[in-house]
Amino acid sequence: MSSPSKSPPEKVFAFLSSFGLATAVLVMLLILTFLGTLEQAEHGLVASQARYFESAFIDRIDIGACWRALAFDGYYKLGNVTLPVYILPGGYTLMAILFVNLLCGGIVRIRKSPKTIGVIISHFAILFMIAAGAVTHHYAIEGNLNLREGQTGDEFVSFHDRVIEIEKVQADPAAKRSVLVIDESQYRDLSSGQGRTFTSDSLPFDLMIANWKKNAEPRRDADGSRSDSVDGYFIQEMSILDDAGAAKADEQLASACLAIAKPKNGGEEQKGILWEFAAAPWTVTVGQDKFLISIAHRSYKLPFAVRLEHTEEEKHPGTMMARRFSSKVTKISHGHEEMRMVTMNEPVRSEGYAVFQSTFSSGEKEGTGIKSSGFMIVENPADHWPLISCIIVAEGLLLHFLMMLSRFLKVNAWALSLSLIALFNAAFALAMWKLL
Q1: Which of 72, 125, 133, 261 has the fewest CB atoms within 10 Å of its CB?
Q2: Alpha-carbon torsion (341, 345, 349, 352), positive or negative
């Protein structure tokens, strides 16, 4: 007797919860990890991570870079060859599909019984880990803090978040800075011919922003024929793709826009071009007051200060390749000083922030001879979620193993399992307390 045919919703659910879908996703993730690791040698970690793991779809594969990373260039020089692909899902899409697959197959569809409770707990922990990645991608703040030896800093500059800063020039150099910011989300929809006016009670003028371009540069209006030129210059939009046709890294883009300052007392309007890579801010004068306006990466305040005491670089023997960066820093919080060591793989974590060692400079290129370190600052609300999920996975698998063992030994399954898990947790807590 044949089983009744499934309805369309049941077929969709069966597909989303199938082992075949899980296998296909894991294989594709393995391929992306392989390709991203190879391209990292020429394109860098940030660009490769953005192209393969943070994107919904991959725009191209650099076959030439992968070929050279595998050292095949010694046998045959392939040159710069790229394979354009626009339907290959990126890491973001694959992880979303894997999340749905685990939820449907590992939580909803799985048979519920004491025999599977450990497996269900482990599946839930993996879902929690994937969710941690999504929270990190959307809500983590990453930036850079550069310090010379002996220098103290408590602000870092975001890698991606841009703002328009309006700062009043203070007559007293010791006076506290006062900066108004307009977030990029409030003006990045202003394409050619569109404008929006921003006002503040603390400013003697209203500021209109128009003709925003994600990547552009000022060009001279040679014949004076353009109606959008300001002081003989206009905004020329540039491609966001590199010579190979791949999207440029965000930090390589230079946004620009037209700015119009309209004095509230009815004075003459002042026009200027704001460009991210400009050598100096645009100056607006209203009466006796001067204001500096510029596009800049957003600055964030740390709840503590960091002073760089000493930094050093270790190189692989006989090469100029860096083996290890390390910095001895002093963390200053509420008048209390604490000496800490930051290395490439051992960040300092405090008050929801992680401080990573990212760059090193001996000062020789700058001609100063003063060593400096670059620190990557990360504020991540899901910073400890992967650790928690790994602990839950371990406990779920341990519970599953103990349940199977207890049935083999013909003893009370729950008594043996829960007592040994309690002992495991106590030992783990003691180990963590000793380490911290």
Answers
A1: 72
A2: positive
Phi and psi at 287, nearest 5°, equal: 65, -125
Domain ranges of the chain: 8-109, 142-155+300-379, 162-297, 397-435
Calculated CA dihedral for residues 343, 349, 354, 359, nearest 10 degrees: -20
Helix axes 91-102, 19-43, angle to 10 degrees: 160
- The CB density around residue 77, as the number of other CB atoms within 10 Å, is 10
Tokens of 178: 């006062």
Q: What is the pLDDT of residues 301-315, one digit of tens each?
A: 999 999 999 888 777
How confident is the model over 357-374, as pLDDT tens digits?
Answer: 888 887 777 667 788 888
The values of phi and psi at residue 360, to 5°, are -145, 145
Task: Report residue 69 as tokens.
Answer: 């990373």
The token pair at 133 is: 């990645």
Which H or E run contains 211? strand 205-213
Structure tokens that stand for 2 in this block: 């044949």
3-state SS class at 200? coil
